[in-house]
Amino acid sequence: MLMVFIIGTAGSGKSRLTAAFSDWLKMSKQDVAIVNLDPGVSTLPYEPEVDVRDYVDVGKLMEEYRLGPNGALIMAADLVADEIDRISKEVEELQSDIVLIDTSGQMELFAFRASGPYIVDELTKEQKVIVYLFDAVFSVNPLNYVSNLFLSSAVYNRFAIPQVHLLSKCDLLPKEQVEKIVDWSSNKNALIEAIEKNLEGTRRLLSREIVQSIYKLGLSFPLAPVSAKTNEGMTNFNMALERVFSQGEKYTF
Ligand SMILES: Nc1nc2c(ncn2[C@@H]2O[C@H](COP(=O)(O)OP(=O)(O)OP(=O)(O)O)[C@@H](O)[C@H]2O)c(=O)[nH]1
Ligand SMILES: [Mg+2]
Fold this sequence. Notes:
Elements: E1 2-8, H1 14-27, E2 32-36, E3 50-51, H2 58-65, H3 69-82, H4 84-92, E4 98-102, H5 107-111, H6 115-123, E5 127-135, H7 142-159, E6 163-168, H8 175-186, H9 188-198, H10 201-216, E7 223-225, H11 234-247
Parallel strand pairs: 1-4, 1-5, 2-3, 2-4, 5-6, 6-7
Helix pairs in contact: 2-3, 3-6, 7-10, 8-9, 9-10
């Protein structure tokens, strides 16, 4: 089994991509299952085989402990970690070739609290990959793009497992804009040029230094554009996962 954790900032398209990619894989006769790890979601665009909401009820936590939505979500993330043995048993029983795992809307709950890496470690011992989504509309501006680059490096720093980077919702941008962002992702000079041209003062300085540091660390984040609406880029997404699957832990981006 290849376990694919889909991560990205709130609203970046995780759930819809999970649904669309699962449908696409089924059409290509692949054996796929879905796990919903978002305890806070009310409706999903797919039917998950394993659903964390069967274990944790955020509404009840709010009532019982008089918590606000964010406090309840933090508590829910920790309760999911407590239930990990039972959830893991369900996941292990799936025996699908590929398991798509939709994660919390609020990325920081999954990526930056201790429970996230614990859940990823304990959920399964099968091969794992993180798919990090850059929301296309948000990434048009170099300042936002660099902030996202910084976040995806922070996610890599937390989990230290192979990571694939996608530009989600690419149907919402004109083709030239998509190409420009994809170019930033693989061509440092193009990105630095955009920073120099569009940003000023501290923002320019900080953005430039963040990019230089990321490159100095040898991290690279080539982006593959995808759309859950038009299915553009699904073949490339699948090929990126197959590369991880065949190269295992040796795979770096
Ligand atoms: N046009 C277009 N819209 C998309 C695409 N993917 C997602 N959306 C829309 O973007 C919004 C958020 O999508 P979701 O899939 O719920 O995003 P998410 O990351 O799961 O959101 P949270 O879990 O709430 O953080 C919805 O209105 C989707 O219909 C896409 O590829 N193209
Ligand atoms: Mg979602």
